[in-house]
Amino acid sequence: MTVFQSTAASASPPPKRSVTRLAMMFLALVCLSLVTVEGWNSYSSRNTYLREANTVTINMARALSDHAEASIDLVDTILSGVVERFHAGELGSDPERFHGLLESITQRTPSLQGLFLFDANGRWVLNSLPMGAPVSNNADREYFIYHRTHPGKATHVGMPVRSRSSGMWVLPVSQRLDNPDGSFAGVALATVRIDYFRKFYDSFDIGKNGTIFIALDTGPFVVRRPFRQADIGVDMSSGPVFKLWKKLGQPTGSAILTARIDNVERLYTYRHLRRYPLLIAVALSKQEVLARWRTSTMISAGGTLVLLAAILWLGARMIGQMMQTSRLQHDLHEAKTALEANNAALQLLALSDGLTGLANRRHFDATLNIEFKRAIRDCSPLALVMFDVDYFKKFNDYRGHVEGDAALQMVSRAMLAGQRRPGDLAARFGGEEFAMLLPDTDLDGALGVAESIRAAIAALAFPHGASPLRILTVSAGVHSLIPQRGLHPRVLIEAADRGLYRAKAEGRNGVGTAPLEDESVSAVQT
Q1: How many whole angstroms separate alpha carbon 427 and alpha carbon 439?
Q2: Rounded CA separation 57/198 (Å)
Q3: CA-CA distance, 311 to 303, in Å (whole number)?
Q4: d(Cα 287, Cα 260) in Å, to the nearest integer?
Q5: Which end of the chain is more exposed for a tag (fewer CB within 10 A), N or C?
Q6: Phi (first) and psi of residue 508, to 5 degrees
Q7: Element housing 302 (H / E)
Q8: CA dist 492 → 6, 25, 432, 512 (Å)
Q9: Contact of 240 with 247, CB cutoff 8 Å
C-alpha cells in the first residue's frame, strides 16, 4: 500500500472558507481513494473466488476420474480373468462351477450389474444371473457388433444401454472371445451399474446448480448430476465442454462455459481418462460461486460509505486473517513435506530387507510377476538364480548369530556387485536364501552371473570352520525360460530350486541347473 501525504504552509492563515474547502476536498479525496481501493479489492476478491472455485473443480475432476478409472480397471481385470478361464476351457469342463464363480464375483463387486458370455451368434452361453433366468440374444448390441468386426484383445467401453436382464441402465465393458484359429467366438461382457456412478456423484457438495457428468469421448452421456434418465445416451459432442476439449487438445482443461442443456453459466473442468474413452466434467455455478462475494462486497461497500473507521477495522482484520491463512498454509506445507518424507521412508522399508539392504521377498514376488508378464509379451527369456549359503546352520551354531548376520551381509554385497544391469534384481528370498532375477537373459548368461557371484564369495575366504572347505561358500541353482501364456511364475522358482538342490547334491560351492519338469507346468489364470 502506498501512502500519500501532503502539507500546506502559509505565512498567514488562509481564509476559513478555503480551509473548509480544502478539508472537503481532502475528505472527498480520501473517500474517492477508499472507494477506488474497495473497488480494486472487490475485483481481486472476485478473481480469488473464481480461482479457488477452479482449483476445487480441478481437484474434484481428478478425484472423479481416478474413481472412474479404478472402477473400470477393476471390472476390466475381472473380465480379463473370465476370458482367460474361458480360453483355458473351464466353461466346457464345469459350467456350473463357472456360473457360480461369475455369480460370486458379481455379488462381491458393488459396481457390477452382471457378467455374461455370448457365443458367435449373440446367444447367452453363461452369465451371473440366477439359474433359470430367461435366455436372451444380444447380437444387435453395439459392443457385440464392434467385437465381431474388430479383431483384437482390447477392452471396449460401449454405449450405455438398458439391461435386458434387469431393466437398469448399465455401461457395457467387453472383450472379444476367439476360437483357437483366431476366428470370432463371441463376447465376454461386464455391465457396470450407472446408478453406481450416480450415487457416488451425489455425495459431492457442488451446490444447487452445479453439475457432474461422465460421457464417452464420442459425445453420449453416461450419467449426469442432476440425474435424469432422459439424459443417458444424449449426444453432447457439439456441446461447449467437448468443443473446449477438442480445441485445447489436452487431457484436462478449465473454462467458464454456458451449458447447452440448461443455459447455466458454470466454471467447468474436464478430464479425459488415461486408458478409457471417457470424459469426466465437474462444474460449479458461477452465480453460486460469486454469491458470497456479492454479499461481502455489498456489506463492505456499505460500511465504507457509512463509517470510515469500520472500513479501517475490517481492513486490519482482513490483513490479520490473510497472515493467519499464510501461517496455516506454511504449517500445512511443512506437515505435507514431513508426511511425504515419512511415506517415502515407509515405502523403502516395505520393499527392502532390513539386514542386507537387498529387495525383500515382497518386492521380489511383485517384480517377478511384472517381468514374467513382460517376457510373455516380448517373447524374451527370463532367468532366475537361487543362492543358498552352504552349511549356514552350522555356521550359526559355530560362530553365533551376530557373525551369521555379518556373513549374510557379505553375501548381499557380493550379489549387489554382481548386478550388471539396472533391470536385474538381487533379493533376499528368505533366511540364508537369495535370488537374482535376470530379465532378457538366456541360460548361458545366467550361468555366467551365478558363477561370477559364487566365485566372488569364495574368493573373499570368509572363515567357516564348520564347512569342509573351511570358508563360507554358496551353492546356486539356475534356470532360464521364455514364458508362455498359462505358465505361473512359480515354475521358474521351482526349476531354479531343483538346480540348487542339484548343486548341493554334487558337493556344494557350485552352480547347478535342472530341466523344466512337465508336472511343474500349470495353466494358472490371473
Answers
A1: 14
A2: 18
A3: 6
A4: 17
A5: N
A6: 70, 180
A7: helix 291-306
A8: 89, 92, 19, 14
A9: no
Find out whether 224 and 216 touch, Cβ atoms under 8 Å: no
**128 φ, ψ (degrees, to nearest 5):** -95, 5
CA nearest to 349, candidates 370, 366, 365, 363: 363
In order of 49, 74, 99, 429, the CA distances from 479 in angstroms are 63, 34, 39, 16
Q: Is 139 helix (H, G, I), strand (E, B) or coil?
A: coil
Cell 521412508 sits on residue: 345
* 477 touches 497 (CB < 8 A): yes
**Could you say which DSSP state residue 297 is in?**
H
- Residue showing cell 501512502: 3
Residue 434's Cβ-count burial label (10 Å; 0-12, 13-18, 19+) is buried
Biggest CA-to-CA distance, the chain: 121
Can you tell me the distance from the alpha carbon of 315 to that of 228, in angstroms, rounded to the nearest whole number? 46
Residue type, 510: G
Grid coordinates of 454? 559364487
* Cα(319)–Cα(297) distance, integer angstroms: 16
Q: Which amino acid belongs to residue 298?
A: M
- From first to last of its 526 residues, the chain has per-residue pLDDT tens of 433 344 444 444 445 456 566 667 777 787 778 788 878 888 888 889 899 999 999 999 999 999 999 999 999 999 999 888 888 877 766 778 888 888 889 889 999 999 999 999 999 888 888 765 666 788 999 999 999 999 988 999 999 999 887 889 999 999 999 998 889 999 999 999 999 999 999 999 999 999 999 999 999 999 998 888 888 989 988 999 999 999 999 999 999 999 888 889 999 999 999 999 999 999 999 998 888 888 888 888 787 778 666 665 666 666 667 567 667 777 788 888 878 777 766 666 677 888 888 999 999 999 999 999 999 999 999 999 999 999 999 888 888 888 989 999 999 999 999 888 888 999 999 889 999 999 999 999 999 999 999 999 999 998 988 888 899 999 999 999 999 998 999 999 999 999 999 999 999 999 999 865 543 433 332 2
**pTM of the predicted model as reported, rounded to 2 decimal places:** 0.52
